[in-house]
Amino acid sequence: MRKFKLFGGIKISVFLIALLVVGCKIQTKSSAFPDTNKMILSGDWKFNTIYGMGSNPLNIQEQPNDIVIDNNDKTKVEIKGSWKTKKVGGRGSVFYGEDYLVRNFKKEEAANNYVRFKPTIKKTGYYEALIKYPFASHLTAQVNINHSEGKTSEYVSQRTDCGQWISLGIFTFKASENNYIELTAITDGEVAADAVLFRPISAEKYKEAKEQPNQVYLPDYNDSDWHHLKVPGHWGMINSYSNYNGLGWYRKEFQLPSSWNANSNEKIRLQFDGVYHVAKVYVNGQFIGKHRGGFTPFEFDVAAHLNFNGKNTIAVEVDNRNKVGATWNWGGIIRDVYLIKNNNVRINNQYIHATPNLEKGTANLKLKVRLENNSSEVKNIAIHSVISKNGKILTLNKTIEVAAHKTVDAILEGNLEAKNVKLWHFDYPELYRLETTILEGKSVIDNKENNFGIRKVEVTDSKLLLNGEPVRLGGFNRVSEHRYWGSSEPLEVLEKDVDLMKEAGANFMRIMHGTQNEKLIELCDKKGILIFEEVNVRDLTNPEFTAPHYPLVKDWIKGMVERDWNHPSIIGWSVGNELSNHYEYAKTTMDYVREMDPNRLVTCVSNSGQKSFSNRKTDPNTEVDIIMHNMYRWQGEPQVIIDKLRSEWPDKPIFISEYGFDPYPTTSLDGDQQIFSDWNEHWRGKNEFVIGGSLWTFNDYRSGYAATSQEENRVWGLINVWRQKRRMFHRVAKEFSPIKNIDVKNLHIANNKAKVEIPIRGLNDYPSYSLTDYKLKWNFRATDGTIVEEKSQDLPNIHPADKVWQGEITWGKLPDELLDLRIQLVSPTGYVRYEKVIPFSTPKSPVITGIDLGDKSVRVLFEKVPGATEYVVYYTNDNNKTVASFKTITNAIEIERLSNDKEYTFSVVAINGKGESKTPNAIKGTPNGKPLAPKIWDAFITDNKAVIGYTSEFDDTFYTVKYGTTKENLNKEFKSNVRGMMTIDLESTSPIYFKIQRENNGQKSNWSTISKAN
Questions:
Q1: What pTM was computed for the model?
Q2: Complete DSSP assignment for 100-153
C-alpha cells in the first residue's frame, strides 16, 4: 500500500481514489460574475504566411532556374565519414535520382560525419534552400545551412514528408564564400542524404520577406488581403496551406465591452486553450510573451496593453514545425481564446478529492483552493464552497490571510452522509457540482464552478478495483483529430466519437499522447470512460527538452495535471510514450506528478520492458503504479512478452496500452482483423494480472509518415477519418461486450414468447465487470424496416460469477411478414453492449443510384436497405460466366478486370442471414479507358465551406469539382491539388450538388456520379 500526500501535508492510506472536477477554466456563471467578465475571442481571424518562413511541399515543383544537387554529384558533394549508398527507399518512400546516402549516427559524431551539398554560386544573390530525403529513422536529423550571414541549423524528422521538397528558408549566398547545406546528426539514429535545391529569388522579394516579420503584428498593418480563418481551427482548412509546415500569422481586431475600464484592482488575462506548437503573442504592437507546447493552455496579463476606448489588435505567430511520431502537426490556434477579467485577488485553481467509505457509504472531502493575490496589500479572504447534487448538500467555509504578491493553498474538509453519496462509475457516471466563492469583507471578488465525481480506484499486484469491484476493461487509443477539423475538433465531433467508443465497448483506455481537448474529457466524465492522460513526450532527443531536469516537459505536465486534476474520468497520468534510456527521466517526472496529484496512478508507457536489457534496475516499470506496455507483432509472441513483464515485475498489474496489427491494406471500410480476437485470448481465462487493453487505434488519422495511404491517412481504425464504421467495429463491439452471446430458444411467432439465455463473461474473462441496472430491449421490424413492436425489461444485477442469466421475451400480435427480431443488452447510460439480430426474411433489393466508369473498371453505387449485413454485385464476365464481386458493408462496389468499350449489366444484391434479396435492380455500364473518378467519402457544408472527402491515388496531381445549386446546373468550377480532402468557399449555406474528376499523370478521369453536400 502506498502512502499518498494531499497538498504536501495530510497523508491518506489508500491505493488510489479520485474525485474530480470537470474543467479548470475560469467560470463566470454566478450572478456576481456575469458573462461580461469573460470575452471569447474565438471565431473569425485573419491568417497569412511570409515567404521563406515555411512551405507547402504540394506546391513546390522544380523550375528551370533552380540549382539541384544530387548526392552522387562528386563535384558538388563533400562526404566525410562512412556513408552507404542505397537504391531502394525505406518503407516504399521515393527519392531524387538513382540512389541516396545513409548513415547510422551515434552521439557526438556530427563533426566527423556529414554530407555537404555545395552549390556553384556565380553571382551573389538570394535563394530559397530546400532539401529532399527518403525515409530514415532519425526524428531530429540536423541540417546546417552555411550562408553569408553565418550558419543556420534546422532539425527535421526523416520519417515524415519523404520524397518531397522541404523548404529550409531564404538566405544570401555570396559567390566567394563556402556555401553549403549539410546533413548530420547530434543524436543516435539513421540519417538519409539525398538531394538539395537552391531557388533564386529577386532582391525585392527577399527584402519584403525580411521586413514583414517586423510589421505584421503592428495595429496599422494592412491585412485586408489575408485569408479568413476560423478559431478554433487550423490553417490546413485553406487548400493552399493543407500541407504547410512553418510559421503562420494570425490577427484579430476587437473592442472591449463598454463595461470594462482600466482598474488598478483588476487583472485582464489573454488565455489560449491551445496553439500548435509555438506561439508568440503581440497585443497592440507589443510583444506579450511566448509559449511552447501545442496542447497545454497558457495565459498572459495584458491589462496594461489594452485600449479601453477603441480598437485592439492581437497578433500571434504560430510555428507548427514540431513533428512528433506519425500524427499530423495541425498548425494554428486549435482551441478557444478568451479575455478574462478578474479582481487582483482571484481563485487561481481548485482541487477536490474524495475518499469514499465503501462499507458505510459515506465520503470524506478535501478541497484545496489556490488563492492568488496580485495586489501590494495583505488580504483577508473568506472562502465559501458549496457542494450540490439536485440541491445543496454540503457547505465548506474558511478565512485565510494572503500576503501581497503571493499565492497560497487553503485546505477545507468535510463529510458527506451516505444518503448523499452516489459513486461515479463507467456505467453510472454520477456528477456533483462544486461552487467556490471568495469574498473580501462583504464583497464577492471571484468564484469558480466545477463538476466532480466520487469514486475509488485501487490496484493490487494483479487487479484493478473500481469502487471495490475487480474489473478487466477494454478501450482504445483515439487520435485527437478529424480530417477536416484536425485537432481543433468541435463539440459535435467529440460527442460522436465518445458515443461511438462507448458503442464499441470502451470503458477504460490510454486515450492518446498529449493533453486532450478538455471538452473530450468532460464527455468522458459524463458518459463514463476511465482514462489515462499523457503528456506529449515521445522522444527524449527532441531538442526542446533539456536533461536532466526537463523544465519544458515539467511545464507541460503541470499544465495538463492542474487543468484536469478534478475530472473523475481520469484515473492516472502518463509521463511519456515508448522512450529510450529514460529511467531517470521517468522517475523524475513521475515524482513531480505525484507531488501535484498524489491521488491518481502514475505510469510511463513502454515498449521495451520485454527486452533482455530491461530489468528492475534499468527500466522505469520499477517506479510506476501500473505497467502500461505497448505490444505489436514485431516485438514477439504476446505470451512471451507477458511472461517477461510478469517475471520481472510480479508486484504490478499490466495494462496493454497499445496493441495493433499493422494498417489495413487499403482505406476500404471492409477491413477486418481476426487477429484482434486471437490476441484477446491471451488474457481470457488466464494472465489475470493483465487488467485490460487499449487498441491502436479507434480512428484513422492523417499522417505525413512514410507508408501512409494515398489520402495521407494512417489506416488503423475502427472508423475512418470521416467517422464511418469499418467491419472491424462490429468485431470489437462483440469482443468488448461483458456477455458472450444472446441465445434465443423456442422462437415461434405464434407463441408470443421465447426463452433467452445470456452467458456472462466470468471473473477471469475479458472484459469482466458487473451489470447493474442494465436492460434487455427487443423489437420486431416489418420488411420495410419500420418497428412494429418494441419492448424492454429491467435485468437484475448480474455479476461475473453468475455465469448465465435466463429469462424470456414476449410480444403481441405481429404482421405475417417480418424482417427481423433485434435483441439488445443496453447499459444504464443507453449504450448497446450486445446486439443479436434474427432475420425472418431476406432484405429488399437496393436501389442503384449511379455508376462511375473507369479504365477496365466501374464503381456501382446504391442505397443501403434495412436488415442487410452486406452487399454484392453480380455480372456476366467476358467468358459469359455470371460472377460475383467481393462483399461489402458500404454503398459502393468497384469491379475491375473488365474490357473497355464493352457494355456490362450489373445487379446489386443485399444479403442477410436468410439469404439474398430477390429481383435485384440492375444498371448498365461501359468501361471507357479513362481513369475511375474519386469515390466520395463524405461531403458537407460548415462555416460557409463545402468540405469534400474523396479517394486519391499517389500519382494524382489535381482534382476538379463542378458544382451548383441544382443537379442540372453545375455552373461553377474549383480545382485543388490536395489529396483526400478539399474545401470550397461558398456564398451561402444552401446545399450544393457536385461531381469530381482527378488528373493522373496528365490523364483526366471520368466525372463521378453527382453527389450532394448539405
A1: 0.94
A2: EEEEEE-TT-GGG-EEEE----SS-EEEEEEEE--B-S-SSEEEEEEETTEEEE
